[in-house]
User: Which sequence fits this backbone?
């Protein structure tokens, strides 16, 4: 979790799909081919849920995985649901 001036900062990391090597250019959520813009989500190794940058504890990260923008929105909403 990133805290700046006591405010938690959560950032969605957006990048271009063509920056990802061809063989890895699939959505982590649904396995669909990625094109255009993608979101990078960080997997929390304790819960198996995906977060935006700052949305989970950095020391529990299992790494970063690319998702389509719509899947990313769904995944983060799921992770943040009570
Ligand atoms: Zn997907």
Assistant:
């Amino acid at each position: 979790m990133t805290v700046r001036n006591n405010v938690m900062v959560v950032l969605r990391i957006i990048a271009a799909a063509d920056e990802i090597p061809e063989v890895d250019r699939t959505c982590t959520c649904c396995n669909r081919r990625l094109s255009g813009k993608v979101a990078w989500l960080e997997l929390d190794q304790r819960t198996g849920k995906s977060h935006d940058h700052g949305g989970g504890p950095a020391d529990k990260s299992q790494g970063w995985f690319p998702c389509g923008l719509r899947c990313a929105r769904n995944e983060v909403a799921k992770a943040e649901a009570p």
User: Anything to note?
Assistant: The CA atoms of residues 12 and 50 lie 11 Å apart. The helical segments are 69-80.
